[in-house]
Amino acid sequence: MKAYAAQVLGRIKISAHLVRVTLQVDGHYASTRIPDEYIRVLIPPVGADLALPQIDDKWTITYPEGAVEPDFRVYTISDHRIVEGDTQIDLDIALHDEGVGSDWAKRCQPGDQVGLIEPHGLYAAPDDVAGGCWSPTSPVFPRWPASCASCRRDSVPWSTWC
Questions:
Q1: Beta carbons within 8 Å of 2's beta carbon, 6+ residues apart
Q2: Per-residue DSSP letter, 11
Q3: Whole-number Å distance between alpha carbons of 39 and 41
Q4: pLDDT of residue 118
Q5: Positive or negative CA dihedral for 88, 93, 99, 103?
Q6: Pairwise CA distance, residues 72 & 104, whole Å
Q7: What is the DSSP letter of 139?
Q8: Which stretches of the chain drop beneath a pLDDT of 70?
Q9: CA 60, CA 77: separation in Å to the nearest integer?
């Protein structure tokens, strides 16, 4: 497993209880292209520097000596795209009265650092399924990510897009 550093590019309020946080990942961060793709976000405690762990194949996690361990939260990726050679990821995060992830989503600002563990997915479509842009947020209903320039929603049935 590999851990990556990422920085907050922006935060947009989608509704009273939902925000979209856009992250930019340092280095190459490939998508699994599995519809329910998710990541573990490492959120450093307020005032602490980001410490990235070393993770072996058995998920043994170690941190540099003296580092403050971040909290882990799991989020489904809403969109994954490459912009001018950099990887950008959108996370749609539900806001609650309190909680590590919700509190971070409420206060994060452009430039804030978080860590990411490489993405995973559980529900890949069978190899014989063709067509459609499937949202990382929904394995059941199609969603058309902004990064999918080949979708022609106005003239072609959704099952043939992309």
A1: 55, 117, 118
A2: E
A3: 6
A4: 84
A5: positive
A6: 12
A7: S
A8: 27, 129-162
A9: 24
